C-alpha cells in the first residue's frame, strides 16, 4: 500500500530517505523523521489495538506523550519491548511492531465480546465479581484476567543493552523547549548561567513548530531553530532532545530519562540505549506546555476520533492527513487552526463549534478561507466500528442541556478540541500546591515550594507574546540571582492571532433513548457511566473514585482524562472542581524503563567485588568462591571430582592432623592510635583492656547499647599507644562507624584516632599441629617457640625481606598463627607458605572447612552473634567485666537478660550419628506434640565433625545450661525432617583449650 | 534525594551519608547509677517528631564525620547543619 494519506509536500520529515517497517507482519513505508504513528496514518492504518477492558478497536488519539491508545509491542535488534507509544517511537529502517491486547488478531478479537457484555463490567467489576471462592482467584480468575487484559509482553531474555546513569549540576534546568523554554534558556544562557535545556521530543520548539506565528520577522519554527543552534554552541549550555524530565524530587533534584538509541535500528557500539540523568539544579524552569482536552460524546473512542492539535501536528510536522473528510468539533479557537491547515492543503473540513457566536481573528480567517462552520453544534456520537464513517450531530441549546434534531453527516475523522490542560506534573511533584484557574477551567501551579518557576502554557498562559515576555524576564532574573551578571537581551517583536474565549462545555448530553458509551479514560475504558455508578455507591473522595474506577490509572496516567473526570464528579456532586481537588501527581511523568532505573548496576555490578591479593592464586588452584559480604572468598579448593562436602572434610581434617593455610585478608582491621586508645578499648569491649602489655593480643566482645553482642575479634597492642583491632568480615564497616560515633559525639575528650586498614594488610591463618614447624621455616631468625611466641603473643618480623606481623591467635582451635604482610606482598607470602609447607603437608582451606573447625570447637560467629544474643547466650559471659562500665553494660541486668532459664549455646549430636541437621531447624521436646509445637531453640550452625566423624551442630537453646545430656528432637518442616538428638557441650573438640596453648 | 551541607565538605548528596537518629539524646555518663526508666529513655524511647528535628548523620563516603542536621521530617527542609561539637542555636 502506498502512502495515500501523505501530502505531496510539507512537514519536517526527510522525504529523501524512505524507510521500510512492519506492523502486524505487513510491510509499509515511511520517511526519516516519522514516528511509527505518523507513518501508519500516512499508510491509512487507523486500527492499532484493542482497549483494555472491552477490547474496543483503538486508533490514534494524540501525537505524543499523552497518547492513551496506540501502545505497541516493539521488536528491535532481536529484542522486544512492550508498552511503546507509537506516537513517540521514531521510525527506523526495519522497525517491527505488533498490536497488543488482542487475540487472535487486531481485526478479529475474541475479547471484544466484553464490549457486548458490558453490562457485566461496571466499575469495580473485578472487586465485586472475583471475590469468592478465595481458592478460585489463583487458579481461575487471575490467569484468565491476565491473559485477557495484557498490555504487551515483557522479554524474558537478559537485556544486553547498556544503560547509564549520569549526575549533573546546573544553575537552571529548563524542562521543555517550546516558546517559554527557549526564551528563558536563551536569556539565562546569555547572562552566563549554566543551563540544561531538555526536550522530550526529537525536535526542539514545541508549539512553535505547528503554530502560525511570527517572532522577530521569522516564522516560529525558524526562530526556534536559530535559538537552538546558538544555544548548542554555548559552552555553558547543555541541550538535550529525546530527554524527558520525569520526576521532581527533594532539594531540587530532578531525574531525566534520555533515549539515546531508541530511535536507531540498533545501538551503536559503546553507546548506551538510554541514560538516566540525576540533575541537581539551583533553579528549575518548568516549560512543559499543555495538553489538549477532549470533549466527551457518544462512542468518542472510535478510531478516527482524535485531538485536533494532534491532527494539526500530523499535518504540519509529518505532512500526513488524519482524514480526507474531517469534522472538527471544538469549544474554542484551537479547532479552527486545525481546520485552516486542512483547508490550506485542499481538504474541506466542517467545524462544529459549541459556542453561540464567537468572534476572533482566527475564526475570521477560517470564514475567509471558506471553511464550513456550524455554531451551537455538537457531535452526539461517532458512528463506525473500526473507523469513524459518519457522525450524529445536533444543535445544542444555549444552556447546553437540550439537543435539537439529530442529523448524520459523513466524515472519516473527528478532530476534538476541548481547550487546554496545563502540564503541571513537575510543579506538583515539587510540593507546589496547585490552584484552579477559572478562566481556563484547569489547575495551574500555585506558590512555589522548591526553587521552581512554571512558565507559559504550563502556567495557564496561552498567548505567545505574554509567554515570551515572562520567560525572557524569568531567565534573566533567575540567572542574575545566580551569576550576578547583567546581560539583558532585547525582546523580539511577536505577531500572533488573537483568540476568543473558550466555552466551558465539555460533555455532550445523551440523546433520549440512547445509551452511548462516553469515555473519559481511553486507556482504561472508564466511561461517564462508571463514574456515575461509583458516586451512587457512595465513593466521594476523588482518590477513592480513581482507584475504584481506575480512572487515570493506566500507563498514560490520565493525561487526557483527569480533568474531565473531575468535571464529571463536580457536576454530579454539585461542587466546583477545586472543591473536588485532583489526585496526586507522582513521578514518573511517563513510563521509564527498568533498565534505565537500574543502570549499570546489574548482576555482579550491583555491588563492588573485593578480592584479596591472593585471589589469582586461589583461582589457579581450583578454588570455588563464595560471596562473603562484598568479598569473594575461596569456599573450598576442589581436587578431582570432589564435592563441597568431601573437599571441606579433607581440608578440615588436614588442619587437625597437619597444617592448613586460610586467606583471612577479609577480616576487618582497624588501626587505633592515641594516648587514650586503651581507655577507648576498655569502654568499647566488655572485658578489661587497661593492663594489656605491648606485644600481646586479647580477644574482646563488644555490645550495642541494648546489650546485644555487636561483634568480636582480637585486638593487639603494637606499641604503647598503638593497637591493631580485628573485626568480623561482615561487621567491619559498622564497627568503624561505631567507634567514630563514640569518639566524635559521646567522648570527644578521648585523644584517639581510628582508621580502617582492612585493605592495607593481607592475612594468612596458619593452623594445625605442624604450624610451628612451618613458622620456623618462614621466620628462621625468630624464636617462635611456645616461650618465644606464646598463645596470644605478637611479634614483628621479616619474611624473606618483607615486613610481617605474626599473631599467635586461633579460630580453628588448633595451634595457629596469623601472618599479616602489606597487601602488595600478599601473594609472595602465600606462595612462600605453600612452598615451605610442602614437607608438612600444608593444604589451603576455604570458608567451609573454616566453619567446620570453628563449629566443632564451639567458637561463635555471625550465625550465633545474630543481633539477638547477649554474652551469656553465647557463653561469652566470662568476658564481661563486673568492675568497669562499658557500652551496653547497663542493659545486661534487665529482667529478660537475667532470667534463670535464659537461652544458651549448646552442641547438638544426632542419636544415629549419621543424619545431618539442617541449619535453622527448631528444637522441640516432643516431635508428635500438636501444632503449634513449642520451640525450645534453633540450630545456628551445622557441620560434619572431622574430629568425631559424625554430624555436629551448634544451637541456641532455652535453659541450655541445664539441658546438657537431654534428648530432644530437631524439626525441619522445610526439609521434612525429624531427627532425635542429644544435647552436648558446645565445645566438642578440646574442651580445655590445650591445643591452642601447646 | 536530600542535599546536605556537610560542615567540612560542603553540599553533598544524601547517598554519601548514613542516618544516625535523634541528635538530642545524651548518653548517660559511665559508671553512673541510673534508673531503668532513664536507661530505657536513652536506648529505646524516641519521640518520632513530625516537623523540625535535630538528627545525626555520618558523612560516611566522605570525611566520615558525624554531623548534626536540623531537618523537617515532613517536608525534608534542612534548616541548618552543625559539626558534632557545635552548639545548636535554638
Structure, explained:
The complex is a heterodimer of chains A (998) and B (90). Chain A is an alpha+beta fold. Chain A folds into six domains: 1-156, Roll (Ubiquitin-like (UB roll)); 163-290 and 422-495, FAD/NAD(P)-binding domain (3-Layer(bba) Sandwich), CATH 3.50.50; 294-418, 3-Layer(bba) Sandwich (FAD/NAD(P)-binding domain); 616-666 and 760-845, 2-Layer Sandwich (Gyrase A, domain 2), CATH 3.30.1360.120; 667-757, Aminomethyltransferase beta-barrel domains (Alpha-Beta Plaits, 2-Layer Sandwich); 899-997, Beta Barrel (Elongation Factor Tu (Ef-tu), domain 3). Chain A contains 24 helices and 50 strands. In chain A, strands 8, 9, 12, 13, 14, 15 and 28 form a seven-stranded mixed β-sheet that branches. In chain A, strands 41-42-43-40-34-44 form a six-stranded mixed β-sheet. Chain A has a six-stranded antiparallel β-barrel with strand order 45-48-47-46-49-50. The longest helix of chain A has 20 residues, at 464-483. Chain A is elongated and about 115 Å long. Chain A starts with 13 loop residues before the first strand and ends in a 14-residue tail after the last strand. Chain B is mostly beta strands and 90 residues long. Chain B has one domain (3-25, 43-83): Folate-binding fold (2-Layer Sandwich). Chain B has one helix spanning 36-43, and strands spanning 3-6, 10-13, 18-22, 52-58, 66-72, 78-83. In chain B, the strands form two sheets. A four-stranded antiparallel β-sheet of chain B has the order 3-4-5-6, with no helix packed on it. A two-stranded antiparallel ribbon of chain B has the order 1-2. The longest helix of chain B is centred in the middle third of the chain and has 8 residues, at 36-43. The interface between A and B is medium-sized, with 24 and 27 residues.
- Along the chain, the helix and strand elements of chain B come as EEEHEEE
Which superfamily, in CATH terms, is the homologous superfamily of the largest domain in chain A?
A: FAD/NAD(P)-binding domain
**Name of the level-1 CATH class of chain B:** Alpha Beta
Beta content of chain B comes to 35-45%
CATH class of the largest domain in chain A: Alpha Beta
- Measure the end-to-end span of chain B: 26 Å
Low-confidence stretches of chain A: none
- Overall mean confidence score, pLDDT of chain B: 94
Determine the N-to-C terminus distance of chain A: 93 Å
Number of domains as seen in the coordinates of chain B: 1
Amino acid at each position: 500500500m502506498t502512502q495515500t494519506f501523505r501530502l505531496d509536500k510539507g512537514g519536517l520529515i526527510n522525504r529523501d530517505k524512505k524507510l521500510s517497517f512492519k506492523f502486524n507482519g505487513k510491510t509499509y513505508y515511511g520517511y526519516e523523521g516519522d514516528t511509527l504513528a505518523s507513518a501508519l496514518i500516512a499508510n491509512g492504518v487507523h486500527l492499532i489495538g484493542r482497549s483494555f477492558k472491552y477490547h474496543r478497536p483503538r486508533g490514534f488519539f494524540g501525537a505524543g506523550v499523552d497518547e492513551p491508545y496506540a501502545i505497541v509491542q516493539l521488536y528491535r535488534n532481536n529484542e522486544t519491548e512492550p508498552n511503546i507509544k507509537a506516537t513517540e517511537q521514531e521510525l527506523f529502517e526495519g522497525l517491527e511492531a505488533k498490536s497488543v491486547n488482542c487475540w487472535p488478531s487486531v481485526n478479529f478479537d475474541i475479547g471484544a465480546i466484553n464490549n457486548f457484555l458490558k453490562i457485566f463490567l461496571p466499575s469495580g467489576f473485578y472487586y465485586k465479581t472475583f471475590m469468592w471462592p478465595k481458592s478460585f482467584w489463583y487458579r481461575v480468575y487471575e490467569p484468565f484476567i491476565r491473559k485477557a487484559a495484557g498490555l504487551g509482553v515483557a522479554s524474558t531474555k537478559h537485556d544486553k543493552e547498556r544503560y547509564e546513569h549520569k549526575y549533573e549540576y546546573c544553575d537552571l534546568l529548563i524542562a521543555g523547549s517550546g516558546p517559554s523554554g527557549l526564551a528563558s534558556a536563551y536569556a539565562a544562557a546569555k547572562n552566563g548561567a549554566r543551563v540544561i535545556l531538555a526536550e522530550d521530543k526529537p525536535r526542539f520548539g514545541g508549539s512553535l513548530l505547528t503554530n502560525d506565528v511570527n517572532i522577530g520577522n521569522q516564522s516560529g519554527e525558524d526562530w526556534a531553530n536559530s535559538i537552538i543552534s546558538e544555544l548548542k554552541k554555548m559552552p555553558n549550555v547543555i541541550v538535550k532532545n529525546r530527554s524527558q524530565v520525569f520526576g521532581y524530587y527533594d532539594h531540587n533534584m530532578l531525574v531525566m530519562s534520555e533515549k539515546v538509541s531508541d530511535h536507531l535500528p540498533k545501538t551503536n557500539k559503546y553507546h548506551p540505549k538510554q541514560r538516566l540523568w540525576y540533575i541537581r539544579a539551583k533553579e528549575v524552569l518548568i516549560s512543559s506546555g499543555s495538553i489538549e482536552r477532549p470533549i466527551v460524546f457518544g462512542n468518542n473512542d472510535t478510531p478516527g476520533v482524535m485531538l485536533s492539535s494532534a491532527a494539526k501536528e500530523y499535518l504540519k510536522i509529518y505532512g500526513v492527513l488524519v482524514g480526507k473528510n474531517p469534522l472538527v468539533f471544538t469549544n474554542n479557537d484551537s479547532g479552527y487552526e486545525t481546520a485552516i491547515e486542512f483547508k490550506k492543503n485542499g481538504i474541506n473540513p466542517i467545524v462544529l463549534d459549541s459556542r453561540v457566536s464567537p468572534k476572533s481573528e482566527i475564526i475570521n480567517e477560517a470564514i475567509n478561507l471558506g471553511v464550513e462552520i456550524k455554531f451551537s453544534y455538537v457531535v452526539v456520537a461517532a458512528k463506525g466500528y473500526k473507523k469513524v464513517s459518519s457522525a450524529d450531530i445536533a444543535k445544542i441549546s444555549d444552556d447546553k442541556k437540550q439537543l435539537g434534531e439529530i442529523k448524520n453527516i459523513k466524515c472519516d475523522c473527528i478532530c476534538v478540541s476541548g481547550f487546554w490542560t496545563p502540564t503541571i506534573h513537575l510543579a506538583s511533584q515539587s510540593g507546589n500546591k496547585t490552584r484552579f484557574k477559572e478562566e481556563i477551567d484547569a489547575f495551574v501551579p500555585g506558590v512555589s515550594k522548591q526553587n521552581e518557576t512554571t512558565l507559559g502554557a504550563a502556567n495557564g498562559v496561552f498567548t505567545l507574546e505574554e509567554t515570551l515576555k515572562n520567560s525572557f524576564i524569568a531567565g534573566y532574573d533567575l540567572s542574575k540571582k545566580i551569576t550576578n551578571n547583567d546581560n539583558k537581551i532585547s525582546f523580539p517583536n511577536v505577531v500572533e492571532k488573537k483568540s476568543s474565549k473558550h466555552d466551558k462545555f465539555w460533555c455532550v448530553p445523551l440523546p433520549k433513548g440512547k445509551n452511548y458509551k462516553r469515555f473519559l479514560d481511553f486507556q482504561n475504558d472508564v466511561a461517564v457511566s462508571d463514574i456515575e455508578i461509583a458516586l451512587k455507591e457512595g465513593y466521594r473522595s476523588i482518590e477513592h473514585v480513581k482507584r475504584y474506577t481506575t480512572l487515570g490509572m493506566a500507563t498514560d496516567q490520565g493525561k487526557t482524562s483527569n480533568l474531565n473526570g473531575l468535571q464529571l464528579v463536580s457536576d454530579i456532586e454539585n461542587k466546583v472542581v477545586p472543591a473536588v481537588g485532583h489526585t496526586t501527581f507522582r513521578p514518573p511523568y511517563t513510563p521509564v524503563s527498568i533498565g534505565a532505573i537500574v543502570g549499570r548496576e546489574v548482576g555482579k555490578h550491583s555491588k563492588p567485588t573485593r578480592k584479596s591479593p591472593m585471589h589469582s592464586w586461589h583461582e589457579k588452584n581450583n578454588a570455588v568462591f563464595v560471596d562473603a559480604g562484598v568479598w569473594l572468598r575461596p569456599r573450598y579448593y576442589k581436587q578431582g571430582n570432589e564435592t563441597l562436602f568431601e573437599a571441606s572434610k579433607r581440608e578440615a581434617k588436614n588442619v587437625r592432623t597437619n597444617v592448613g593455610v586460610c586467606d583471612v585478608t577479609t577480616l576487618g582491621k582497624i588501626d587505633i592510635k592515641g594516648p587514650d586508645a586503651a581507655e577507648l578499648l576498655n569502654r568499647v569491649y566488655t572485658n578489661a583492656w587497661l593492663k594489656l602489655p605491648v606485644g600481646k593480643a586479647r580477644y574482646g566482645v563488644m555490645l550495642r547499647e541494648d546489650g546485644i553482642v555487636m561483634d568480636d575479634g582480637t585486638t593487639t597492642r603494637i606499641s604503647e599507644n598503638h593497637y591493631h583491632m580485628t573485626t568480623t568480615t561482615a561487621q567491619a564497616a559498622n564497627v568503624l562507624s561505631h567507634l567514630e560515633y563514640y569518639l566524635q559525639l559521646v567522648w570527644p575528650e578521648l585523644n584517639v584516632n581510628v582508621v580502617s586498614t582492612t585493605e592495607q594488610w593481607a592475612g594468612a591463618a596458619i593452623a594445625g599441629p605442624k604450624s610451628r614447624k612451618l613458622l620456623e621455616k618462614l621466620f628462621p631468625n625468630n624464636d617462635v617457640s611456645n616461650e618465644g611466641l606464646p598463645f596470644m603473643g605478637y611479634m614483628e618480623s621479616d619474611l624473606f625481606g618483607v615486613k610481617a606481623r605474626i599473631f599467635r591467635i586461633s579460630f580453628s582451635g588448633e595451634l595457629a598463627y596469623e601472618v599479616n604482610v602489606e597487601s602488595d606482598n600478599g601473594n609472595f607470602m602465600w606462595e612462600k607458605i605453600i612452598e615451605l609447607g610442602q614437607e608438612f603437608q600444608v593444604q589451603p582451606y576455604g570458608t567451609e572447612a573454616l566453619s567446620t573447625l570453628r563449629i566443632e570447637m564451639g567458637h561463635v560467629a555471625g550465625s550465633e552473634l545474630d543481633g539477638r544474643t547477649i554474652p551469656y547466650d553465647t557463653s561469652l559471659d566470662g568476658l564481661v567485666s563486673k568492675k568497669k562500665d562499658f557500652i551496653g553494660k547497663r542493659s545486661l541486668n534487665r529482667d529478660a537478660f537475667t532470667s534463670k532459664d535464659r537461652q544458651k549455646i549448646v552442641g547438638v549430636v544426632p542419636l544415629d550419628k549419621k543424619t545431618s541437621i539442617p541449619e535453622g531447624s527448631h528444637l522441640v521436646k516432643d516431635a508428635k506434640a500438636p501444632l503449634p509445637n513449642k520451640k525450645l531453640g534453633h540450630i545456628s550452625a551445622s557441620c560434619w565433625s572431622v574430629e568425631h566423624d559424625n554430624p555436629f551442630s551448634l544451637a541456641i537453646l532455652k535453659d541450655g545450661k541445664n539441658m546438657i545430656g537431654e534428648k530432644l528432637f530437631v524439626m525441619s518442616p522445610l526439609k521434612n525432617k525429624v531427627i532425635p538428638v542429644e544435647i552436648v557441650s558446645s565445645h566438642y573438640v578440646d574442651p580445655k583449650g590445650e591445643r591452642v596453648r601447646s | 534525594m536530600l542535599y546536605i551541607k556537610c560542615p567540612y565538605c560542603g553540599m553533598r548528596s544524601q547517598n554519601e551519608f548514613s542516618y544516625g537518629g535523634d541528635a538530642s539524646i545524651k548518653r548517660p555518663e559511665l559508671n553512673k547509677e541510673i534508673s531503668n526508666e532513664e536507661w530505657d529513655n536513652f536506648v529505646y524511647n524516641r519521640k518520632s517528631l513530625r516537623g523540625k528535628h535535630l538528627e545525626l548523620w555520618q558523612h560516611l563516603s566522605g570525611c566520615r564525620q558525624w554531623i548534626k542536621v536540623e531537618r523537617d521530617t515532613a517536608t525534608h527542609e534542612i534548616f541548618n547543619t552543625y559539626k558534632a561539637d557545635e552548639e545548636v542555636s535554638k
